From TrEMBL:
Species this protein is from: Barnesiella viscericola DSM 18177
Residue stretches making up the Histidine kinase domain: 182-384
Name of a matching Pfam family: HATPase_c
Molecular functions (GO terms): ATP binding; protein histidine kinase activity
EC number(s) on file: 2.7.13.3
Signal peptide span: none
Protein name stated in the entry: histidine kinase
Lineage top rank: taxon: Bacteria
EC class of the enzyme, as a word: transferase
Length: 384
């Protein structure tokens, strides 16, 4: 069976790749536009420099009116014209402050000299002038525009991404709730029938020892149906001693696993309490133990530890199974993730939901090494 989570991950990667390509395309076009505009401004300033040279020449054949018109046409590009000694002869499109305008001009000239926007004007007789110019306001705005576009597009992509994730999560939650409640409903009828058959068998004089074992299994089915019915509803929390919960859950698992699997509990002498929904929390412990048994292929050791620190309780379930690669520490809790040939990959997803959404706790892979085993940790708020 193809891993559902892997399929969804591929979809996310494709979406992100398309988004990156779109952003890259927009940035490329914008930067190309900025480069073209920069070249155009360079050509304008070269024409302006040539007009200045002609204005200073005694042998110009150009119309003086045309020269002045060219010089006056520059209304957007800041420029400073200096002579060969570095003295400022002329400046245009600069907003000088009222206080110390000369210092401002010198600082501006020093700034422009540090750039590459300079044009040498040869006046003849070894006399030269230098035209330093800055990018126009329009070009500066366009230079920042790609980054603004990038920010907007990244924000848009993030909004769309999280909207899709939220929608998907909401849909999954509805499926979870519907599936759980329908399962509980479907189990109710055969359980009621089995209970009636138990009463009939008891009245018929069937061996009470046999009926006792059958009654345990029927009660077990009732517990399972109750657990499914609680999914999607706010569970009733009660103060319980976690020591007893772990002891009961592990004892239940011992009776149902191979004798080759050893389950050992390490519990403190003092009782540790927490507010939990007993039926759902037992489900979590049983599920983690069952996963551990599957990971060990029915042979190995499971150690269950209970420790506390201030206001926190820690439950560690350690196995000697095949382990989990570090890259999958988080993905193991996603719906559809499974390494077994059979199964839907929902057990750890349900466990995470029960612990984190219903009990305000945490569940995660504390440590794991491929080929040596895994330790899952559950954190709960300590009450007593």
């Amino acid at each position: 069976m193809q891993n559902i989570y892997d399929v969804r991950q591929k979809g996310k990667l494709i979406f992100l790749l398309i988004s990156v390509l779109l952003v890259g395309g927009v940035l490329y076009v914008s930067n190309d536009l900025v480069k073209d505009l920069s070249v155009e401004e360079r050509k304008k300033m070269e024409i302006w420099a040539e007009a200045t040279r002609e204005l200073a020449s005694d042998k110009t054949e150009m119309s003086m009116e045309l020269i002045l018109k060219v010089i006056q046409s520059n209304t957007s590009i800041p420029a400073i014209l200096v002579d060969g000694n570095g003295e400022i002869n002329q400046y245009v499109n600069l907003n000088l402050p009222e206080k110390d305008p000369e210092k401002y001009l010198q600082r501006k000239l020093a700034h422009l000299k540090g750039g590459s926007n300079v044009i040498e004007i040869n006046l003849g007789d070894n006399e030269k002038q230098y035209l330093y110019y800055d990018d126009s306001i329009l070009l500066k705005r366009l230079s920042f525009y790609p980054y603004v576009q990038l920010g907007v597009m990244v924000l848009f992509v993030l909004i769309v991404y999280f909207a899709l994730i939220s929608t998907k999560k909401a849909e999954q939650n509805k499926v979870w709730v519907g599936l759980s409640k329908e399962t509980a409903h479907q189990l109710g009828t055969p359980i009621s029938s089995l209970m009636a058959w138990m009463d009939l068998l008891e009245a018929s004089g069937v061996d009470p020892a046999l009926l006792s074992d059958m009654n345990k299994d029927v009660k077990r089915l009732s517990v399972i149906a109750e657990r499914f019915s609680k999914i999607g509803s706010k569970p009733e929390m009660e103060l319980v001693y976690i020591n007893e919960v772990l002891e009961n859950a592990t004892e239940y698992m011992r009776r149902r696993v191979s004798s080759k699997v050893q389950i050992v509990t390490h519990l403190p002498a003092d009782a540790e309490g927490a507010m939990v929904c007993l039926s759902l929390f037992e489900w979590v412990i049983e599920n983690l133990c069952k996963n551990a048994v599957d990971a060990m292929n029915g042979e190995g050791r499971i150690d269950v530890y209970l420790t506390s620190e201030k206001q926190q309780l820690y439950i560690d379930i350690k196995d000697t199974g095949k382990g989990i690669a570090r890259k999958n520490f988080k993905t193991v809790f996603n719906p559809g993730y499974t390494t077994k040939k059979r199964g839907w990959g929902l057990g750890l997803t349900l466990a995470k939901r029960i612990v984190e959404e219903y009990h305000d706790g945490r569940i995660f892979v504390k440590e794991s090494e491929v080929g040596k085993g895994t330790t899952f940790r559950i954190e709960l708020k300590r009450v007593v």
